[in-house]
Amino acid sequence: MKFYARLIKNRVTEVWNDGGLNITPHDVHVPSIASEFIPCPETVQPGATRVGEEWINPPPVEPALPPEEMPEPIQ
User: Fold this and answer.
1) Which residue did the predictor score with more confidence, 75 or 30?
2) What's the pLDDT band for 65 if we cut at 50, 70, 90?
3) Whether pLDDT at 67 is above 80
């Protein structure tokens, strides 16, 4: 499967994969959007930045409360 990152000002706003169909963003997006995609490793996440050839993922989002302090879901 091939992965592509949509970069806007060197920040990944979207990660897209071809689903194993061997297609590119140019096959499914209008040219102005397709031109914002570049190939990337499958480990790249939305919010990552690209510095030169290096991809830097954002830190994981931590829960606001530890699991033992989370309120019970409303049913």
Assistant:
1) 30
2) low
3) no
Provide the token pair at 41. 């490793």
- Return the closest-CA partner of residue 7 out of 32, 28, 38, 31: 38
Q: Considering its fold, how many domains does the chain have in total?
A: 1
Distance (Å, rounded) from C-alpha 38 to C-alpha 15?
A: 10
Give the range of the structural domain holding residue 50, as residue numbers without chain letter: 3-58
14 assigned to some structural domain: yes
Q: Token pair for residue 75?
A: 């049913």
Residue 69 lies in a domain: no
Predicted local distance difference test score (pLDDT) of residue 64: 76
- Single pTM value for the model: 0.78
Residue 74 lies in a domain: no
Enter the tokens of residue 73: 């879901």
